[in-house]
Design brief:
Strands 1-4 form a two-stranded antiparallel sheet. By secondary structure, it is of the alpha+beta class. It has a single domain, classed as 2-Layer Sandwich (Alpha-Beta Plaits), CATH 3.30.70.20. It starts with 11 loop residues before the first strand and ends in an 8-residue tail after the last helix. Helix content is 21%, strand content 15%. The longest helix is centred in the last third of the chain and has 12 residues.
């Protein structure tokens, strides 16, 4: 088995073919990096989206909690992650209050 290598300059990425849009990853992200978008072709009518990749802190909570092994976080040796900011915490809270859906302007 080989180790998966992150796409260049990408802190977090999703294999949408594996994702069932359960929104668990969005619920555990402390930095508001993830949200759900409407996706009519998906079984649940939504799909995960990485909305603020530059805010990823590399905590791995999304990857560790994904029941379908569909989300991945780069190794700390391959990517310089952000620090958790107040703005990120506020965005995460707003996404949670919006039923995990992507915020509109």
């Amino acid at each position: 088995m080989s180790i998966m290598k992150a796409p260049e300059n990408t802190p977090v990425w999703v294999d949408e073919a594996r994702c069932k849009a359960c929104d668990i990853c969005v619920s555990v992200c402390p930095a508001g990096v993830l949200a759900m978008r409407l996706e009519p072709t998906s079984t649940l009518g939504a799909m995960i989206e990485i909305i603020e990749p530059q805010a990823c802190i590399g905590c791995n909570d999304c990857e560790l909690n994904c029941p379908d092994f569909a989300i991945y976080v780069a190794d700390k040796s391959e990517f310089k992650f952000a620090k958790l900011s107040e703005q990120s915490k506020e965005r995460a809270e707003a996404i949670k209050n919006n039923k995990y859906m992507k915020l509109t302007a």
